Amino acid sequence: MVQNTLERAVGAPPAGRAREVRPAGPALRATGTALTILAALLLLFVANLGPLGDLRHGRDQKVAHSELRAQLANATAPVGPRDPKGNPYPTGTPVALLEIRQLGLRQVVEEGTTSEVLASAPGHRRDTVLPGQPGVSIVMGRQAAYGGPFAHIDQLEAGETFTVTTGQGRHTYKVLGVRRAGDPQPPLPAAGKGRLTLITGDGTAFLPAGLLRVDADLVSAVQPGAAPLHTPASLPDDEKPMAVQNGAWLPLVLWGQALALAAAALTWIRARSGRREAWVVGVPVLGALAFFTADQAALLLPNLL
Fold it and tell me: Is 167 helix (H, G, I), strand (E, B) or coil?
């Protein structure tokens, strides 16, 4: 009796009568749609660095390996920073095949070390000579994102060997050791000798706290070299270790604007036509735009991530 009295006092409906459910207003529906789109965008951004990035990296490696294999067979693979016509090789050009059997690593190395290049392959730093040539060559690779090809190079031990194949043949390197911040740098190789330094991020995956280097001396025959395209001073900032690709800002803004317009259109369609029709039309469009937006946003993270 007390309960019935309280229900009548607060205006509760009589027993056996369904409660009236008011539909969400336009503002609430728009807010829900916006939050759903934002959550999907964040999820796609994370997936782009993880499983989707792994798939992309694997696909790009297959394409690059086919291209490099054809060049090696036809003796047209790069042996310097410029092609036979004297033009610099564009970033992303396959230049070498790095094989470290004890780590199960077999990666095509591409020219350049921007975030975009390192999403597809380890990159040759353009202010250094190619592997197999006299001097110090540097190859940079990601620690965790986009397949994380250099995730385990810290497991290499002094005395172990690995190979790098270029247009000048197959070159063998002997590991000197692993270097982290504060560790002494080995003396420069003697004149006419070669060395390769592998660089990646150090520390927790996706949260690198510094640089990790593996130095290895060339123990096979040294091949003729050509002067690098850049000096350390002239190397573009977005190709240096832990750099971001500032050129991605403009595409990111444009793709973001397109995504915002598509989201607004989806909200309008949902308000006019209903939820099912809105999502059937909007999901494919928003998915594509979100993918391109997340891809550009990932280029603004450190290139060794």
Answer: coil
